[in-house]
């Protein structure tokens, strides 16, 4: 009886050990970037984060594209417009903060950040961009940079916490890159994250982005139209051809009106998204 009890205890101990070992991930193993986002529970990287060579990464990105397409509503789109919701279809690997800065995981030790197309619509007349310094510590949800406009100053909030590795040198002499290419050449900085997995879980990603983004685009359009109509009496008569188009309606806003739009864009109207 004692031998049977001992054998059972041994088997139970070995089973528990195997189970514990199965659940543990060795420190030297590299977690898949998709695992750090919380979208998958377990996968290790065997390609040293060369995602462009990974079939699994391609499948995940294609699935995001399909989901976004299924949720997209048919709208009239200007084919020359690069900042609208349709552009999200080609930027599906980005994570978005509610204050309209995106994060792209280059690898677990480097995250590239920039502004989305909605902010790009509001900053047509940029005088300069004030970026953080190399080595500066930034915090998720806190101001880390400023866009100086002709009449307004726009605060930018970091989507992740960490240390600044680099800033985009092209923005010093060509700040209009933020308007022309907000998702690529107009990037702001790269960050070495402190707690990447936790930060990414609080950001918007994949199919959740499209409905959120479209609702914010509608806010800009609606508020812009309202403000324009309120001020139309002061414009005087216009030509049949409409005259010269304004490069950005923001130029005609008061500081109060500008702050009102920014506040509306940043407001969490549906926490379930």
What does this structure look like?
It is a single chain. With 273 residues, the chain is α+β, with helices and mostly antiparallel strands. Helix content is 36%, strand content 17%. The protein has a domain at 80-230 and 247-273: OB fold (Dihydrolipoamide Acetyltransferase, E2P), CATH 2.40.50. It has 9 helices and 10 strands. Helix 3 (55-71) crosses helix 8 (207-231) and helix 8 packs antiparallel against helix 9 (255-266). The chain starts with a helix and ends in a 7-residue tail after the last helix. The model is unreliable at 8-12, 15-23, 64-83 and 238-247 (pLDDT under 50).
Task: Tell me briefly what this model is.
The chain is an alpha+beta fold and 273 residues long.
CATH topology of the domain at 80-230 and 247-273: OB fold (Dihydrolipoamide Acetyltransferase, E2P)
SS element count, helices: 9
Question: Largest sheet, order of strands side by side?
Answer: 5-8-9-3-2-1-10
Order of helices and strands: HHHEEEHEEEEEHHEHEHH
Largest sheet, if any? 7 strands, antiparallel
Q: Would you count the extended β strands for me?
A: 10
CATH class of the domain at 80-230 and 247-273: Mainly Beta
Instruction: State the shape.
Output: globular
Look at the helices and sheets and give the structural class: alpha+beta
What is the gyration radius calculated from CA atoms? 24 Å
């Amino acid at each position: 009886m004692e031998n049977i009890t001992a054998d059972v205890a041994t088997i139970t101990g070995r089973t528990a050990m195997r189970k514990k070992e199965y659940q543990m991930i060795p420190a030297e193993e590299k977690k898949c970037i998709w695992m750090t986002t919380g979208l998958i529970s377990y996968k290790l990287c065997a390609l040293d984060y060369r995602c462009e060579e990974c079939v699994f990464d391609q499948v995940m990105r294609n699935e995001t594209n399909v989901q976004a397409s299924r949720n997209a509503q048919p709208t009239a789109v200007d084919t020359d417009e690069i900042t609208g919701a349709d552009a999200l279809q080609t930027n599906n690997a980005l994570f978005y903060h509610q204050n309209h800065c995106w994060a792209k995981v280059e690898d677990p030790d480097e995250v590239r950040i920039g502004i989305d197309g909605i902010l790009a619509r509001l900053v047509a007349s940029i005088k300069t961009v004030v970026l953080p310094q190399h080595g500066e510590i930034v915090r998720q949800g806190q101001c880390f940079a400023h866009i100086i406009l002709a009449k307004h100053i726009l605060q930018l909030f970091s989507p992740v916490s960490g240390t600044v590795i680099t800033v985009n040198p092209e923005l010093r002499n060509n700040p209009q890159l933020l308007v022309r290419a907000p998702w690529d050449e107009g990037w702001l900085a790269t960050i070495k994250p402190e707690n990447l997995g936790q930060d990414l879980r609080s950001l918007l990603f994949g199919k959740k982005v499209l409905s959120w983004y479209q609702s914010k685009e509608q806010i800009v359009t609606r508020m812009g139209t309202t403000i324009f109509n309120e001020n139309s009496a002061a414009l005087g008569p216009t030509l049949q051809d409409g005259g010269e188009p304004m490069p950005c309606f923001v130029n005609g806003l008061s500081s109060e009106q500008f702050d009102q739009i920014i506040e509306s864009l940043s407001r969490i109207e549906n926490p379930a998204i």
